[in-house]
Amino acid sequence: MSAEDRLIARFFAPLATDPGALGLSDDAAFVTPPQGCDLVLKTDAIIGGVHFFADDAADLVARKALRVNLSDLAAKGAKPLGFLLSLALPKDTGEDWLTAFARGLRADAELFGCPLFGGDTDRTPGPITVSIAMFGSVPDGRMVRRAGARPGDRIFVSGTIGDAAFGLALRRGADWRLSAAQRDHLAERYLLPQPRNALAEAVRLHASAAMDVSDGLAGDLAKLARVSGVAARVEAAQVPLSDAARAVLAAEPGLIETALSGGDDYEVVCTVPPGQVEAFRSAAKAAAVTVTDIGEISRGAGTSFLGGDGKSLAFKQASFSHF
Amino acid sequence: MSAEDRLIARFFAPLATDPGALGLSDDAAFVTPPQGCDLVLKTDAIIGGVHFFADDAADLVARKALRVNLSDLAAKGAKPLGFLLSLALPKDTGEDWLTAFARGLRADAELFGCPLFGGDTDRTPGPITVSIAMFGSVPDGRMVRRAGARPGDRIFVSGTIGDAAFGLALRRGADWRLSAAQRDHLAERYLLPQPRNALAEAVRLHASAAMDVSDGLAGDLAKLARVSGVAARVEAAQVPLSDAARAVLAAEPGLIETALSGGDDYEVVCTVPPGQVEAFRSAAKAAAVTVTDIGEISRGAGTSFLGGDGKSLAFKQASFSHF
Asked: In chain A, where are the structural domains located?
């Protein structure tokens, strides 16, 4: 057995619980798509020093890598089926790191019903690179798209916005004299996204368009509006904020731009036709996911965030980019 | 539009020819699996300085990244449907590189009927890392596995073995006084694998077990035999070699080990029940892929390569590993 085979057998084969994964003993895996379903496909990678800090706990790195992909499936109304893992590791990656990484991966694979189907492990002279390709299912033709928002639709967002961007700023040394609980909340929201897969069915049944908020609400909503051929208008005061984020903004009001255009929220933004709003709210409540009406879609083009004075907020940069 | 969005729109959206890819304008893609088919899933990455040289032409890097995955689909009897691309690029990656990379990717996506469904592009402080997740289809339950070889089955291999390992040795400075044509042949076989997707249907209809030869024939066949619970015996003299590889072995006979255990062949090794041998040969001929009977499966365990004297060859390392 090669070193790679031993590593796979020890750390990753236990996660390959689906019969189609063949215990990772084959060249490839197979999946029988549920009857009458499309598969939804997504890939996203995270890289040490770019998307996470080199000293982040390995189990959290694994869970983040899965969750950024799970978040896309949630926004598309899809149910996760499984994932492929492509892992590039520096030579000095130790067993402790791998043990913790596999533990985190397994915890979330179980939590989200999303087993490992296959993978590839390589040495790299660069940083740890974790690339996930995830697949899920939706009834034929029912993947919720970005294009689909119509004038009159209400704009909803799940959870709270801006926490992760403030959590990242804290990691980088920002200090707003927060309580320990507030600091912990923001730090945690950056370290470990909470993808809204519980909301997927509500989105699929009631939303006209949706996407996950990963590069900042302002920029992501602008993409949705552009590809839908409509304008979006958000009441900034309606954007849901955590207590901790409110404390940051109380200390430094100008950071509203960071909240609205920072990245890593992993919430869902979607548009809901007026006739579906009550059903959507009920379904979200049944799924125990908080959703907030933040604005309206109208004819035209452009995305604006209105302040308390009714004037548009101006952003230097609508969208965060690692690129 | 962010820099990443512009890059995607310019270089990669033209490759996203399937309607389910939504022109790469959405968070995810969808695919409607062919009626009565399983999807076959595979991921494999190639990394600069590990799997290819930093100065390899970008179009060949792209094609190699696709082809190492296509080769697995061929061995599993699957028809390619499409792929996801996760690309990590150093900051100094220029437009020329990207233009050539996208050109190579497109050429092979068209050649193998395998369009781009989605992707992710990131900056990395490390080397260029190209991770592909590929999916294909087979009739329900008919993916050809490694496990399945039975005593009495004949062992077949496609194409020729050892060329790529010798091509790599040439790149590293080996000199066997070959002709220019021989050198070019070996160099080309290392640079650009020729996956045997044309053979996929013959394998699916007639093979009891199969895998692609990517880590050396000796080590890969040993994996197939082990998971099938059988022994494999190969007549070393029957292993198909190119004229160029024969010239290398004439100069340095000890390199038979490199031929049989080096990597990057991207041929198919499969086992065929005696009653299927003629049909398999005919189907391979119709597909214009050369296949060679190299030995037999028997009861027991272990994989041996017999020399002209009937004795087993002894290998220092049965399988090549980048790990």
From this structure: 3-139, 154-306
Contact B32/A118, CB-based, under 8 Å? no
**How many Cβ pairs within 8 Å bridge chains A and B?**
223
Which tokens belong to A124? Answer: 């790299």
Q: Are A21 and A116 in contact (CB under 8 A)?
A: yes
Whether the predicted pLDDT of B89 surpasses 70: yes
Binary contact (A126, B47; C-beta < 8 A): yes
> Which residue's structure tokens are 């499936």?
A73
ipTM of the complex: 0.93
User: Taking residues A238-257, what's their average pLDDT?
Assistant: 96
* pLDDT, position A320: 54
Does the distance separating the beta carbons of A84 and B2 come in below 8 Å? no
CA A67 to chain centre: 6
Q: Tens of pLDDT along A91-127?
A: 999 999 999 999 999 999 999 999 999 999 999 999 9
Q: Which pLDDT does position B126 carry in this prediction? A: 95
Rounded CA-CA distance A118/A30 in Å is 10
- Residues paired with residue B231 on neighbouring β-strands, in sequence order: B298, B302
B168 shares contact with chain A (CB less than 8 Å)? no
> Is residue A146 less than 8 Å (CB to CB) from chain B?
yes
Of A32, A42, A50, the CB nearest to B123: A50
pLDDT tops 80 at residue B315: no
Indicate if A154-306 has the same CATH topology as A3-139: no
Q: Taking CB atoms and an 8 Å limit, are B118 and A76 in contact across chains?
A: no
pLDDT at B309 (0 to 100): 85
Average pLDDT, rounded, for chain B: 94
- Shortest Cα–Cα distance, A181 to chain B (Å): 33
Select from B49, B76, B147 the Cβ nearest to the Cβ of A125: B49
A39-55 confidence digits (pLDDT tens): 999 999 999 999 998 88
Query: Looking at CA atoms only, how far is residue B20 from chain A in angstroms?
Result: 9
What is the fold, at CATH topology level, of the domain defined by B3-139? 60s Ribosomal Protein L30; Chain: A; (3.30.1330)
Which residues of chain B make contact with A76, given a CB cutoff of 8 A?
Answer: 26-28
User: Among A4, A25, A31, A41, which would you mutate to test the B interface (most chain B Cβ atoms within 10 Å of its Cβ)?
Assistant: A41
In this predicted model, which residue has the larger pLDDT, B137 or A309?
Answer: B137
Options 3.30.9.10, 3.30.450.20, 1.20.1050.10, 3.90.650.10; which CATH number does A154-306 get? 3.90.650.10
Mutation target to probe the B interface, by most B beta carbons within 10 A, among A1, A26, A32, A214 is A26
Encode pLDDT of A169-206 as tens digits: 999 999 999 999 999 999 999 999 999 999 999 999 99
pLDDT in tens, B269-306: 999 999 999 999 999 999 999 999 999 999 999 999 99
In chain B, the N- to C-terminal Cα span, in Å, equals 39
Whether the CB-CB separation of A39 and A81 falls below 8 Å is answered with yes
Write the DSSP string, A258-308. Answer: HHHH-S---EEEEEE-GGGHHHHHHHHHHTT--EEEEEEEESSSEEEEE-T
Half-sphere exposure of A76 (CA within 13 A, CB side): 30
- Please, which residues have CB within 8 angstroms of residue B112's CB and are 6 or more apart in sequence? B66, B70, B80, B195, B197
Mutate to test the interface with A, among B2, B35, B43 (most CBs of A within 10 A): B43
Tally of residues, chain B: 323
